[in-house]
Amino acid sequence: MFVKLKASNVHSLDVPDEDHIHASASVNMGTEGLTLHLLEALVSHPVLTFALLVAALSSTWWYIRDSYEVDTFSLKQVFITGCDSGFGNLLARQLDLKGFCVIAACLTQKGAADLASSASSRLKTLILDVTDSESIRRARRFVSKEVGERGLWGLVNNAGRSTPIGPLEWMHLEDFTKVLDVNLMGVIEVTLQFLPLLKKGGGRLVNVSSVLGRLAIIGGGYCPSKWGVEAFSDSLRRDMQQFGVKVSIIEPGFFRTNLTRLGPIEADLRRLWTRLPQEVKDSYGVTYLDEYLKCQDFSMRILASPRIAMVTKCMEKALSARFPRTRYTAGWDATLLWLPLSYCPSFVCDFVLRLLLPPPAAHTL
């Protein structure tokens, strides 16, 4: 009986059948075969092997290098423009928490008071209008006293405006200058005033451009101003390399800030439409403005991200990294849509952009 019980126990074990054994063997042989095939391919193509090795080592080296940060944040002072709201406001509070000595420039007294109440006593505020030369000079004198002989570690040109935007034919010259005076001439004048302090501190200049500084998709002064910021920053970066001043450009996609609020943008578009000659209105059609606003509303709701910290993290990285990048891109739309599209042939860009806006009544193919 004991022998029978042992036999019964043996038969009760889960013994794989022959098909399972053959299948497992086939999988193992298939895996081994694929590995051998890849090894043979690499050995037989030394150029490919070398290229893959270089790419892997370069990626690893770049990742490690990019992670290094400077130290003694508490001894480094950063001046930021446009801190009433949006990117500038969040960056000022973010750097304050990190230990930097922040001097935040706001356009209004309310913006300055609100920011000061939400930060530590280290953070200082001042009033600045980047279109007013005397206001810029006063800010420079204030910052110069604050930084002393150490000089300025960081200047972030963040102040900006978006409107008026819309079809170019709807614009007057003053509509362009309103935007260019803030987004481009303001950046240039602030930079020139503060450059001696940056050179003294061996610091960082961070200019906020836009992915629309790579691809012009809307009319008005916004895109020309951002293309100008790109050109100015690139030229200055090369000039300042010999003085230890590093220049970085931030290229955000669409984010939900005061610059992209649909209410003011729509109100301004209606203002532009109202003053158009009747002949121009007829060429677009009576329903064009409403269709344009609907398309704009749809596009902004899909593309504009509320996660503005994605942008301020890039700014912080440009200020704190030991080896800052030349450009930082923020936003899924910038990375996956606008930047790739900017490298495409013009007819591809034109086709995609035509899908985003309605055609005028008198359009021709």
Describe the model:
It is a single chain. By secondary structure, the protein is α/β, with parallel strands linked by helices. The protein is built from 14 helices and 7 strands. The chain has helices spanning 2-12, 18-44, 46-67, 86-98, 109-117, 133-147, 173-201, 222-240, 262-274, 278-284, 288-303, 309-320, 332-342, 346-354; strands at 77-80, 101-106, 124-127, 154-157, 204-208, 246-252, 327-330. The protein starts with a helix and ends in an 11-residue tail after the last helix.
Notable traits:
9% strand; alpha/beta; 7-stranded parallel sheet; single chain; 14 helices; 365 residues; disordered N terminus; flat
Outline:
This protein is α/β, with parallel strands linked by helices and 365 residues long. The protein has helices at 2-12, 18-44, 46-67, 86-98, 109-117, 133-147, 173-201, 222-240, 262-274, 278-284, 288-303, 309-320, 332-342, 346-354; strands at 77-80, 101-106, 124-127, 154-157, 204-208, 246-252, 327-330.
Poorly predicted ranges (pLDDT <50, ≥5 residues)?
1-16, 20-29
Class derived from helix and strand content: alpha/beta
Portion of residues in beta strands equals 5-15%
Beta strands, count: 7
What topology does this entry show?
Layout: H1 2-12, H2 18-44, H3 46-67, E1 77-80, H4 86-98, E2 101-106, H5 109-117, E3 124-127, H6 133-147, E4 154-157, H7 173-201, E5 204-208, H8 222-240, E6 246-252, H9 262-274, H10 278-284, H11 288-303, H12 309-320, E7 327-330, H13 332-342, H14 346-354
Parallel strand pairs: 1-2, 1-4, 2-3, 4-5, 5-6, 6-7
Helix pairs in contact: 4-12, 6-7, 7-8, 9-11
